[in-house]
Amino acid sequence: MVLYMAFRVIKVHMSPWTIIDQPRFSYRGLLIDTSRHYLPLPVIRKVIDSMTYAKLNVLHWHIVDTESFPLEIPSYPKLWNGAYSTSEQYSVADAAEIVSFAQKRGINVLAEIDVPGHALSWGTGYPSLWPSKDCQQPLDVSNEFTFKVIDGILSDFSKIFKFKFVHLGGDEVDTSCWTTTPHISKWLKKNGMNESQAYQYFVLRAQNLALSHGYEIVNWEETFNNFGNKLSRKTVVHNWLGGGVAQQVVASGLRCIVSNQDKWYLDHLDTTWQEFYANEPLTNITNLKQQKLVIGGEVCMWGERIDGSDIEQTIWPRAAAAAERLWTPYDELAKDPRQVTGRLAHFRCLLNQRGVAAAPLAGQGRAAPEANRGCFW
Amino acid sequence: MVLYMAFRVIKVHMSPWTIIDQPRFSYRGLLIDTSRHYLPLPVIRKVIDSMTYAKLNVLHWHIVDTESFPLEIPSYPKLWNGAYSTSEQYSVADAAEIVSFAQKRGINVLAEIDVPGHALSWGTGYPSLWPSKDCQQPLDVSNEFTFKVIDGILSDFSKIFKFKFVHLGGDEVDTSCWTTTPHISKWLKKNGMNESQAYQYFVLRAQNLALSHGYEIVNWEETFNNFGNKLSRKTVVHNWLGGGVAQQVVASGLRCIVSNQDKWYLDHLDTTWQEFYANEPLTNITNLKQQKLVIGGEVCMWGERIDGSDIEQTIWPRAAAAAERLWTPYDELAKDPRQVTGRLAHFRCLLNQRGVAAAPLAGQGRAAPEANRGCFW
């Protein structure tokens, strides 16, 4: 017997059935954010387990950000000082265990360092990464040490995170600290760069470091919007601001992941599962070759109001609505989300039966169940 | 070495330490309600696991109620027809497994059938238990079959639920169906009973059935408030309406469990952990012998807006505040809950680290965490 899965043919010996199925998109992601709130390992493992039920296959681990730096980096051990507490840290062994746990379930881990803008916490251990004590991000573009640290992180990453991509961030860069801090402003002048050119210089130099460690790159869409033609051809542009960017990215020949915040951000509690379901990554992309450059999509569980107490019911069941769009052939997708309601409600009950705290379909994300009723309608 | 625990002395061989500790109250309960919403087995197991962290030792399983009858009763198999669906049922094997799972963790399971008032779902399989098709509860007091069914349930219970107590409910009995249904009204007249006497007759007959199966009895406080001196001396009166009943119960020589809804009902999302902490079961009970009749207390997680998606964060951390009051000697309890804040916040983070979705302390029950902060302050 032959089992078709993820574009591979898998022989299952002696089984009395055949499954012919394959995903529409190869990249079906869920972002978790362990900087705004730390997520304990059992919580991450439960999230990974639950992803398998909806055939999501990439855990985008937004490990560090402005608020905290929970991961151990042996090359620069003081980065870990940026953790909220010593109880809110991941050792290298922890991270490797998560990667292995995910891998056993067919899930790749996409690790992210979001530079230069979202990296304030790096300076807790290494203050020279800040433009100054009073102006703490973006990372100091004028300091060679900045790129040494990025190189060290990516070197350590390459021993843990074996997925072919690394995510380098690049979004929401406010360069005002660069122009107002005298030594950086001086450096800009000396090198004949304006702020915008310095931003490009930073992102491209970080890209080269990632390439040198064997990674292909994911960057948030601002990098494309600002200097797309300069990006490495090994870049996947990660859409988040809204619809429409994917068609420009693939028209330029780069690959794209779709996560537009108005439809696929799970922290937007007022975005309904119907909107998650209806969000089509190939909108306005008709050319077959260009369609193939949209490698998939990702729902994003940003961590501002999420921790171990409420992450599961904020992810589920809405992530499952997006997951169906990412898996199912376009022509077999429901044109009217009402055709999905019963099936998705049943799936959320199955998740509950498996111990996953998926919330009801009705109401906002993570709403309480309606009074006094069965789960299976 | 000797370990003092729950009034027993346990020898731990070759251990290099001594623990001297024992609970203030022997009964430290948590109610779960599987009628208003079905709770899948993995969810119940997780609740039991989490109870051990706060040294709660009785799972009060409010199995059935008006809304659904999820438990298999071999003696009267059609009772199971009152489940929401065939996916929302507990087999005898399921229930036995829960009892065993709890027992291994030092937790007794107190099973409840709440009669005669909260039993509408029984009639789905056996409509003759209803006064009439149009007036469906309380259970028909005039029908011998009613007591046969209760006897059958308690007989089946005695094979599964080995705790010395069974809970027979007895609260919120609206007897109007008895007086408006001709055949019951006729029976009342024939037996010279008014509604109130019929209620007493029902509760006492159910008590005798429980005693015949070797159980001592728990009943909700209305039974005591209405005819306390008639109750079996083996009754424990379960307070729920408000403070003050415990002192009357123990003055009459009966035992009491405290669960007053204004302080210890977890479905009251606006009751803060500080109020849970401050609720003293021995209020106004100064006599030592009477104090001993308060066997403990229980926090109640009623199921109207709770299912597998939100039960953990509605129980925790508030249940832990009550648990400390139930365990710790009175003189060692904090007089000002502010002395508890740091410790309880730390405990909630520990629960998260163990994969229990305990909510933050601030805000209402199951509030989202504040933005961008560590868990351990």
UniProtKB/TrEMBL annotation, chains A, B:
Name recorded for this polypeptide: beta-N-acetylhexosaminidase
Family matches, as InterPro entries: Beta_hexosaminidase_sua/sub (IPR025705), GH (IPR017853), Glyco_hydro_20_cat (IPR015883)
SUPFAM superfamilies, per the entry: (Trans)glycosidases
PANTHER family: BETA-HEXOSAMINIDASE, BETA-HEXOSAMINIDASE A
Keyword Signal belongs to the record: yes
Keyword Signal recorded: yes
Family: Belongs to the glycosyl hydrolase 20 family.
Coiled-coil ranges (or none): none
Domain Glycoside hydrolase family 20 catalytic: 25-329
Reactions accelerated catalytically: Hydrolysis of terminal non-reducing N-acetyl-D-hexosamine residues in N-acetyl-beta-D-hexosaminides
EC number in record: 3.2.1.52
One family name in Pfam for this protein: Glyco_hydro_20
